[in-house]
Amino acid sequence: MKKYFALLGLLLAFFGSNAQVFDADTTRQEDQAAIQKEEESQRNFFDRFFVGGNVGAQFGQVTNVVLAPMVGYKLTDRLSLGTRIQYQYINAKIPTPFSTHVWGGSLFSRYFVFDNFFTHVEYEAINGFFNPSVGDRVMIPHLFLGGGYIFRFNDNVGLGFTALYEVLQRTYSPYRNPIINAGLTVGL
Q: Whole-prediction pTM value?
């Protein structure tokens, strides 16, 4: 009988010690998984940012040079929000010659309907000398609606094209519908 109790005690000790080792390993694995998940979350936060912008020029009766860098954040794989600052130099020879330096900024949202096709909404306010008869700088708001396509060179870089319609149409706006843009985006 003592042999059976001794054997039973030995078996309990053996299984009990394995259970403790297993619990310690599980706890260690859970801790490592939590640390890895937090690191991945932090990495994903910064991986969701993207930068890009537009550079453009038009020469002739109306000269227009544009520099517009942007930064955005992917809220989800399909929805992005962003902001853009902008500088334009405009020199018009007709109907009344004038030139102006335009500054402004905008907020935009893009929703990818398909992998590369997106809808685009953007609110912009620009400040410039647009009316030669008044002589003062004015702030002009714009609301753009439209869509676009991104041609992806790889997982991180693409060339985006947008076709936009300016809804508010102010008298001295530098934009005429439709507005077609192209720009480079990094961090897709």
A: 0.70
